[in-house]
Predict the structure.
Amino acid sequence: MSRYLSALIAQDLQKRMVIVTGPRQVGKTTMARDLNTQFKRPIYLNYDSIADRERIERADWAPSHDYVVLDEIHSMSRWKPYLKGIVDTKPASQALLVTGSARLDTFRQSGESLAGRYHRWRLHPFSVRELCAQSGTDADQALEALMRFGGFPEALFEASDAGRKRWQNQYFTDLVREDVMEFSRIHEVRAMRNLVELLRRRTGSPLSFESLARDLSVAPNTVRSYVDILAALHIVFLVRPYHRNIARAQAKAPKLYFYDWAYVQNTTPDEQPGAQFENLVATHLLKHACFLADSTGEEVELNYLRTTGGKEIDFVLINATGDATHFVEVKWSESKPSFSLRQMAQTHPDAQAVQLVRHARHAFDRDAVAVRPAAQWLADLAA
């Protein structure tokens, strides 16, 4: 399946090794193998396969292969110096793509340097923009499908509620069994499972590690380490508070969101899916920021705002100099601009103040706030 990164990765493969990271089952392997058609002698090797593992460790493939895919390479001990040796000795005409989850994202933090040897890309779940391009649907139809089935390809394209539930159950079972065990001990697995269930009901709220620790009967620092593991595995991501130039900004706790927003639960069964929708927007904004960074080098950070003065903004996009470029408030049906957003629009005229509404009749501007139907605004993001 061709993805939104496919053409860009194909260009980068002509210059350097490409490292692709992202959540499990987000489509990294499928995208990598789809690129086979652009080469004459491709070869795909997966470190999880016993036969392939031996070949990978011996670097046992012919120099005549013009495209080499090394999948799940993060499971290999000392994979980083191994890759350095592969890159430094491979034929100049041979394209090399490396994919994996979790620990590949640590490649810039420790061990042998790969500086100047790779281009990095982060693959995210399907967004409104990508689904429109892939399926030809309009933005409203794409958003409806994504709200219902999530953005992971298997569940999204099976397009059934039963299929989504079966996929989610298997997905989280495999993550705990295979990936969490790489980071933690056996007796911690049950606590990690319980933590995931608790977090499903706390999506979009500042995390209280102390409260979670009491619920799990563990120490707060233990909960922090568990959340770090979940983030490293691309199960969740954290959105931290924004402070610059905002008087009395006091919030310190991060907010947490799931990459699979369809997994998020509302507080009550009859509640409108506002938390799930906010999570979807958070994931879209993260994908937008990562795409800009990976494709153009433009650094964009995703934050939120909460102050002791009563201002609350769901999301703030920050540029490389630390200035806010967008204040984004997310609403299920309320089109009247929020008080906090109107205040921020007045005090930060250089930033765009946007209120995204899932069910809005039309777009309009009021008090320097752009009120927009969410579907089309999300479709206009970078990725």
Summary: Residues 107-111 have pLDDT under 50 and may be disordered. Residues 128-379 form one domain. The longest helix spans residues 161-183.
